[in-house]
């Protein structure tokens, strides 16, 4: 393996103490095992409940807007948030077997010979990259994609039923672009989406940059799963969804923030019809053939940064792993210049 691991202002270390033996350890071990079984059971229940809530919202097999008024509200919020981005040089709706995928191209001034492709997180879309684009355009040309089946300007027309379908629509999108090679940059669920493609169809991918990716290096914590349940119910007050979004962003206020308003509108008015992403197995990570830059948030509520970093360092064949100790899951907006610098350095090394 050719792995590097660094931390912004600290080190990634294990807290396990195996230096001694607890001669009276049977009872604590049994208690820990009971707690572990309870956590697993509650996690499964929470996931099932969340899936059921999403499933009963509509019998439609594809993601869609629940009403024209809700769609209009979302598009207004989307356009407000999009105004914070530089003007795109090209806007395309790429035809795939699963629907139309909205793609924006921004011409950069950096040395990268292949463009970056930015994949956003759940319930967000291209406007989420507003803070990142200015510095990333100094790295090279940039595409942003609205994930198919998520709120955004992409339009799902066919069911996406498994991880293969998730890789297929993205591969078809990249195939329609004029370039043949890309550097994928994925935030949160976008990190999982990029990794899923790299495991199945790596031919078009030069590198992966994963920003606090979900279900790649670690499981989602139980507290986050439980907190997400009320946010998935559209009839509950807006403050509940704002509260969850603020929780994922380290407690930062989200009221009257254009991109946060867009995300909240999508959560309320869009009926998601996507399968739960399958946790990437460690054996799969070891099979990745592309270099990986993993940037993890030390204060993330979507993963345990120490455990995730250890997994990435141990399993990835060619990787650089960094922990931003003070970052929340909103790492992309909190450290845009640092992320761009890390990506530029990583691409130069490769």
Automatic annotation (TrEMBL):
Residues 115-247 form the AB hydrolase-1 domain. GO terms for biological process: acylglycerol catabolic process. GO terms for molecular function: monoacylglycerol lipase activity. Residues 1-30 are annotated as: Disordered. One of its GO terms (cellular component) is membrane. It comes from the Bacteria. Pfam families: Abhydrolase_1. Residues 1-22 have a biased composition (Polar residues). Gene3D superfamilies: alpha/beta hydrolase. InterPro entries: AB_hydrolase_1 (IPR000073), AB_hydrolase_fold (IPR029058), AB_hydrolase_sf (IPR050266). The chain crosses the membrane at residues 38-56. PANTHER family: HYDROLASE, PUTATIVE (AFU_ORTHOLOGUE AFUA_2G14860)-RELATED, MONOACYLGLYCEROL LIPASE. This is Alpha/beta hydrolase.
């Amino acid at each position: 393996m050719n792995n590097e691991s660094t931390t912004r202002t600290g080190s990634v270390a294990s807290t396990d103490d195996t230096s001694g033996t607890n001669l009276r350890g049977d009872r604590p071990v049994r208690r820990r095992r009971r707690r572990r079984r309870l956590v697993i059971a509650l996690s499964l229940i929470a996931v099932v409940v969340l899936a059921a809530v999403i499933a009963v919202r509509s019998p439609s097999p594809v993601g869609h807007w629940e009403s024209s008024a809700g769609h209009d509200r979302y598009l207004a919020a989307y356009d407000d948030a999009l105004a914070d981005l530089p003007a795109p040089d090209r806007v395309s709706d790429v035809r795939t077997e699963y629907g139309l995928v909205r793609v924006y191209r921004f011409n950069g001034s950096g040395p990268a010979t292949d463009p970056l492709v930015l994949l956003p997180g759940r319930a967000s879309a291209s406007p989420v990259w507003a803070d990142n684009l200015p510095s990333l355009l100094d790295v090279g040309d940039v595409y942003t994609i609205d994930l198919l089946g998520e709120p955004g300007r992409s339009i799902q027309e066919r069911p996406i039923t498994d991880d293969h379908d998730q890789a297929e629509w993205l591969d078809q999108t990249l195939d329609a672009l004029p370039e043949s090679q890309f550097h994928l940059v994925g935030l949160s669920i976008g990190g999982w989406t990029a990794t899923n493609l790299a495991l199945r169809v790596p031919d078009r991918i030069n590198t992966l940059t994963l920003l606090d990716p979900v279900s790649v290096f670690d499981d989602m914590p139980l507290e986050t799963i439980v907190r997400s349940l009320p946010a998935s119910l559209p009839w509950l007050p807006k403050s509940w969804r704002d509260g969850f979004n603020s929780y994922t962003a380290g407690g930062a206020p989200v009221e009257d923030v254009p991109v946060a308003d867009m995300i909240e509108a999508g959560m309320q008015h869009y009926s998601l019809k996507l399968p739960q992403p399958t946790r990437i197995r460690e054996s799969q990570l070891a099979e990745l053939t592309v270099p990986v830059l993993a940037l993890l948030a030390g204060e993330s509520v979507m993963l345990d940064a120490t455990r995730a970093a250890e997994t990435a360092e141990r399993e990835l064949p060619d990787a650089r792993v960094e922990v931003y100790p003070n970052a929340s899951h909103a790492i992309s907006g909190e450290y845009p210049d640092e992320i761009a610098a890390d990506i530029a350095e990583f691409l130069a090394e490769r």
